[in-house]
Design a protein that fits this description.
There is one protein chain. Strand 1 (2-6), helix 1 and strand 2 form a beta-alpha-beta unit. This protein is 34% helix and 13% strand. With 294 residues, the protein is α/β, with parallel strands linked by helices. The longest helix is centred in the last third of the chain and has 23 residues, at 260-282. It is globular.
Length: 294
């Protein structure tokens, strides 16, 4: 029996290295390839690649011998506005689901130009506008179809959100001089249109790895979030952070460290939330199918 693995990540070199490293660590012989081999009766293939480089038809036709690292129909999970609708529908039908507490308050908008916001404040964004005027809360704007941090912005007022969409319009301006001034992470509103706005969690879990040597490596001198390392050098597995000081605690617990019990508790919560998320997606078969048919 021959086993081959298709590995193609043209725009994600870090992922490519991690995938190849994981395959090299296996005890079974695997031949790496950058193109889909010709189908044969003895072919056993794993397609561990970006979505566009996977032969989905081959995966469907040879289910016993071919595996792929991505679902074919997956919008309900990967597109932020589809995910928002999916989770909202599921929690409405299942009010006891842990997703009700796990998912932050979310609004979905469809917008092409900044001046459309004026009307939205009296309609779909009325509740958000009231929150902005009556509190000091922060919110995150996320384009529904972008990735890698493109278009993500923080705001705490109507005026700031207006400025954000005006910035996005500037990035679509034909004047090269003005375009150069736009942020490298700006997006073109008229091309994306769908956005979600989520409540910002002001007190996430923050850990200081500076006191814990990891895998015998020297202790980092600064927090990981300050870009002390680049690429995979700054990445830490969750269980490698046991013993780190918890920076996000206040008062008497301010000197607490991250324990194995804390890790286990968070993993239990993650398992429940992920399981419920997939259940929600399965109730939306148009935009997610675990087993696809042609």
């Amino acid at each position: 029996m021959s086993a081959q693995c298709l590995v193609v990540w043209p725009s994600a070199p870090l992922t490519d290295r991690l995938v190849r490293r994981a395959l090299d660590a296996l005890d079974i012989p695997i031949t790496l390839t950058s193109s889909v081999p010709h189908p044969s009766t003895d072919l056993h293939l794993v397609q561990w690649s970006s979505y566009d480089h996977i032969d989905h038809e081959l995966t469907h036709q040879s289910r016993e011998k071919v595996l792929a690292s991505s679902y074919i129909f997956r919008k309900a999970l990967i597109r932020k506005h589809f995910l928002s609708r999916c989770l909202n529908a599921y929690t409405t039908k299942h009010p006891a689901s842990p997703l009700r507490a796990a998912v932050p308050k979310t609004y979905e908008i469809e917008i092409s130009f900044a001046d459309e916001l004026d009307e939205m404040w009296t309609d779909e964004l009325w509740e958000l506008g009231d929150c902005l005027e009556s509190s000091t809360s922060w919110w995150i704007l996320k384009p529904g179809m972008s990735d890698r941090g493109m278009g993500i912005r923080l705001f705490n007022s109507k005026e700031t959100l207006q400025e954000i969409f005006e910035e996005f319009e500037l990035s679509d301006d034909e004047d090269e001089n003005e375009a150069e001034d736009a942020s490298e992470t700006a997006v073109v509103t008229s091309q994306l249109r769908h956005f979600v706005i989520q409540e910002y969690l002001s007190n996430p879990l923050l850990l200081d790895p500076s006191e814990v040597p990891i895998n015998g490596l020297p202790k980092p001198t600064q927090l990981q979030g300050r870009k002390t390392h680049k690429g995979e050098e700054g990445v830490r597995l969750f269980n490698e952070l046991i013993g780190c000081q918890i920076l996000s605690l206040r008062g008497e617990e301010a000197s607490s460290t991250f324990s194995a019990e804390d890790l286990a508790d968070i993993i239990r919560q993650m398992v429940k939330v992920l399981a419920e998320t997939f259940k929600a997606a399965l109730e939306n078969p148009i935009h997610f199918q675990a087993s696809s048919a042609y």
